[in-house]
Design goal:
Layout (H helix, E strand, L loop, with lengths): L17 H10 L11 H11 L14 E2 L2 H8 L4 H9 L8 E3 L4 H14 L2 E5 L18 E5 L6 E5 L4 E5 L4 H9 L3 E2 L12 H7 L6 H4 L2 H4 E8 L2 E5 L12 H4 L8 E8 L1 E2 L3 E9 L2 H13 L6 E5 L1 H10 L3 H13 L7 E9 L1 H17 L3 E2 L3 H8 L7 H7 L2 E11 H17 L9 E6 L6 E11 L4 H21 L18 H20 L16
Parallel strand pairs: 2-4, 3-4
Antiparallel strand pairs: 1-2, 5-6, 6-10, 7-11, 8-9, 8-10, 12-14, 12-15, 13-14, 13-17, 16-18, 17-18
Helix pairs in contact: 4-18, 17-18
Length: 540
């Protein structure tokens, strides 16, 4: 069964190598493993402190549950703030009920019920949000979460146009399994892939690990159906159109404010003949960035390019275990010119045998031009093998007394290094006033001709209680967000805005842009049925 207070399947446990804990004790400080509240304790506290307001004089729709456990499992995501609430059992207010529609008709029915009773609707895809999308909005209105995970069918596959129509609640593995039986794939593979939904990807403008080949979700989303309080919005899957603004762009990134995505038409691809992941070590950060930029701008047909900075490379090697093998590798790399400042570059090669061979040769020429050491597929294969399992380390680290958070942005190439430095400096100093240290490291998860994402990870100690841990997290979130805004970066490249980043969106969109967003929501939702505080925050 899926964990209620952590990541993934509760039968899967990641083990931290002893040297990884030694490393963290040295860098961040010794930690005391916190006691996690039990599910029973938290459910009892929910019933006592946050009883469902839907049970107060409202005739419940037969699809709705107000049980505390159901509300917890569908009403809390995976931001660090969410984890703190769940692990310490101090959850505060959560959604008042959950419904699991199985088709568009039930979505419309529940929407009408919510309108009749002045209930706010919250939309849950896979409950993997890391920016607070699922929390109830500020105010006294009761909230109902629509959990879309029973809407998971492949409705139609048009092999001529390579378009697949799915119910939007389908999760990544189920989506790909249904396509693979017919010889196709979507190829949208964020780290949360095992538990994230198609509708959630669209609503948050998600990006997968291999978007260099398959595209971000905005390139894959061809059309579909959205149930809005104003009526049903149909989006035809035109390959291109010059007929005014593209309404699909209103749905992309709408974060549950405009309507409920019930069906999505996506562009699919034939399964590739081959796929290889290559590990390369670059001598330093400057040469690494220059190589990544040239690979992107010369359009070498890669499926993935992921570049770790020296600190992330050092941290990855120190926490990997296998000390003897790592020591041998580092001696070899130093002999080849990739010493203490080395950076790990992972490349994905996908396609026919001929395409993979040609891409490999072209990439290798550029890599060697900048002094890179080509190490073959061993490291890349290990990464691919654990690409969805590494996130389980977040559970193990918490159990050892350490919290992990991530933040990301995207900027033009000339701003990439200054932005990375500003983020890392903000992360390292954010907790100084609280007497704590924070380990920070960064990679470029996605590259484009004009710029790159900047994705940073932060590790610090869990405090003895929820308020103190929350204080550390909020200080970190605030400091890093302000650094991103000061550098002119987007407040989100792939996680979305949600509640956590809403205060920083006006810096990016401007007052006129925010007014246009609010007016769009008001048109589709005049009664504020979907007023979940995502994107715009609570009304003043």
């Amino acid at each position: 069964m899926r964990r209620w207070n952590g990541w993934g399947d509760d039968t899967i446990n990641a083990a931290l190598p002893a040297q990884a804990l030694d490393f963290l004790r040295e860098i961040v400080g010794p930690a005391t493993p916190p006691r996690s509240a039990t599910l029973q304790e938290v459910c009892e506290r929910v019933e006592r402190e946050s009883p469902s307001r839907l049970a107060r004089g409202i005739a419940l729709h037969p699809l709705i549950s107000v049980k505390a456990e159901d509300r917890l499992r569908s009403g809390v995501g995976h931001s660090l703030g969410d984890w703190i609430r769940l692990r310490f059992g101090d959850v505060g207010r959560i959604t008042d009920g959950v419904a699991w529609p199985e088709h568009s008709g039930e979505v419309r029915e529940l929407m009408q019920w919510a309108q009749q009773h002045q209930v706010v609707l919250l939309i849950c895809g896979g409950a993997t949000s890391v920016v607070g999308h699922l929390a109830p909005p500020v105010g006294e209105r009761p909230c109902l979460t629509l959990d879309m995970r029973r809407m998971r069918a492949l409705i139609e596959l048009d092999e001529t146009s390579q378009l697949a129509r799915f119910q939007a609640g389908v999760l990544g593995p189920d989506l790909e399994a249904q396509l693979r039986t017919r010889g196709y794939m979507l190829g949208h593979l964020p780290q949360s892939w095992e538990y994230a939904s198609l509708g959630g990807w669209i609503a948050t403008r998600s990006s997968g690990q291999q978007s260099l080949r398959y595209g971000r979700i905005e390139q894959l989303f061809a059309g579909g159906t959205v149930e809005t309080p104003h009526g049903t919005l149909k989006l035809p899957p035109f390959p291109a159109s010059a007929a005014g603004p593209d309404l699909r762009e209103l749905v992309l990134g709408s974060e549950g404010r405009l309507g409920v995505i019930t069906e999505a038409i996506v562009r699919v691809s034939r399964l590739p003949e081959q796929e290889r992941f290559i590990g390369v070590f670059m001598p330093d950060w400057e040469s690494s960035v220059n190589a990544a930029r040239k690979l992107a701008q010369t359009r070498v047909p890669l499926s993935m390019l992921r570049l770790s900075n020296p600190v992330e490379t050092f941290t990855t090697l120190r926490m990997a275990g296998h000390q003897k093998q790592i020591a041998w590798l580092e001696r070899y790399l130093a002999w080849r010119g990739a010493g203490d400042n080395k950076c790990l570059l992972l490349l994905g090669l996908t396609g026919s045998a001929a395409q993979v061979g040609a891409s490999r040769a072209q990439a290798r020429r550029i890599i060697e031009e900048f002094g890179g050491v080509w190490t073959g597929t061993l490291l890349g294969s290990k990464w691919a093998e654990k690409r969805f399992a590494n996130v389980y380390l977040r559970n193990a680290l918490w159990d050892a007394g350490y919290a992990i958070d991530t933040m990301e942005t995207a900027v033009p190439w000339q701003a990439t290094t200054p932005t990375m430095n500003a983020i890392e400096q903000a992360g390292r100093t954010a907790l100084e006033d609280l007497g704590e240290r924070c380990q920070v490291y960064t990679h470029l998860s996605h590259v484009y001709g004009s710029g790159s994402s900047v994705y940073s990870t932060f590790c610090f100690r869990v405090a003895a209680d929820a308020p103190s841990t929350q204080e550390r997290w909020l200080a970190l979130k605030r400091g890093v967000s302000e650094a991103i805004v000061a550098q002119g970066g987007t407040i989100s490249h792939q996680h979305g805005v949600g509640r956590d980043h809403a205060p920083y969106l006006p810096a990016e969109k401007g007052l006129s842009g925010m007014a246009a967003i609010a007016a769009t929501f008001a048109h589709f939702d005049p009664q504020r049925l979907l007023a979940n505080d995502n994107l715009t925050g609570p009304e003043r």
